[in-house]
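REQUEST ID: PR-0412
SUBMITTED BY: lab tech R.K.
PRIORITY: routine
TASK: structure prediction, single protein chain
INPUT:
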Amino acid sequence: MRTIATIQQKGGAGKTTANYLIASGAISNGLKVHCIDGDRNSQLGEWERRSQDYDWKGEKPIWPENLSTSQMPGDIDLLYNHLNDLEKQGVDLVLLDTRPGSNADTEDIAYATDVILIPTRAEAADYELAVETNIWIKAAVGMHLGTLPHACSCVQAPQNR
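STATUS: complete
OUTPUT:
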């Protein structure tokens, strides 16, 4: 089982959007995916419920059997237990969505992941905080884990530029 955490100190930078896109691509390729939502607005964790409750104009799409969601467990030990349970259930990929900022719980999530993705938009504030997030990850986690794979990805670009 692989885990990817989306971490970015700035809110609205595209963490949840990146998770939607990665999950959609992975389930389309037959992977069993579980999304864990650590953001307070719970968009990712409520994805299935919102999809079911939405007033679709036409036929309601069927929720994929190989996609599940949950809220972030209360502490790092519970997260590790949850990840172990997901692996036993045959989950191939876990996506961890985090809240904005450099929080202790986000640092814990970084320890529990294989890859960190730093989403950003093509805006100066997003870029600056993506750089700060990168520095924070290296300082907080990298020295403990050696070289933790992480990447910065642009998930939204202005249409008029």
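NOTES: The mean pLDDT is 81.
REVIEWED BY: pending
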